Amino acid sequence: MKRKKLVLPILAIIFLALGVFIMNESGGKKVPKVVDEISDRYGAIVGYDHFLSDGMKNKKLTPLDKENLERFIGTNLDILSGKVSLDDVDDKDASIKVDLFVPKISTDPVINGTLWYTYIISRPSQSARGVVGGFSSDIDRKDGDAPWKYSNITMSNSDKVEIMTNFGQADFEKLELKFAEKFLMSDLKSGVKKVDFSPYSDYKKFHSSDYNWLSYAFYKFTTVKNSAPLTVVFAVKEDQYNEHETYPKNWFYVYMKREG
Hints:
It comes from Chromobacterium phragmitis. This protein is α+β, with helices and mostly antiparallel strands. The protein has helices at about 1-25, 35, 65-80, 85-90, 170-175, 185-190; strands spanning about 50, 60, 95-100, 110-120, 130-140, 150-155, 160-165, 180-185, 215-225, 230-235, 255-260.
């Protein structure tokens, strides 16, 4: 009889230990990052060329490039809406590495950071190097307790390669974006349009901040995710503007904002 009484406590201990083990295995470990797997210990990518190669004047995004860019835009929107947390993305998404800008004063909140998205286009072979693609976004919020409010992705790059995004109506529909309006940079400058979509400057100063002067026209879209209203604004340069189109084919900046 005494032996039978010990069975349940022993089983309870075994299941408890097994539960702790499973929790530690599934919740306490980050997935390996794509960029880390192809980099040396100093962070330099080895055996791969970047998809924006030296000497290239322009780059038209391929279906694979667009698929990854759309996925990255969608992830940024999911973060702004609160559908997923930044920690979840950093822990579980192998393609995205999160760098948060930690203030020098430890009591100050973390309010901005950068997301780096990396994907493999082709693996190295005995006769050729591999090719890797990537995009990045900047993300901002008002304080440490607030939800992430702004994010943006640029097609501008240090190699000065003109990226042709080659988007069509179907690409915007995949992102569940609804067209709202189109306006020019001159409309912001004159105050005809009072649309704020950047954390760094309001519509009055937007035209004179950073490289914003390169923008000629803007296409504003809206969507709702996780019950949170979001505004998405695509900027195009003057040579890519078509007054008759509703969907910008070759945009070079996208601004995302959580409203409210």
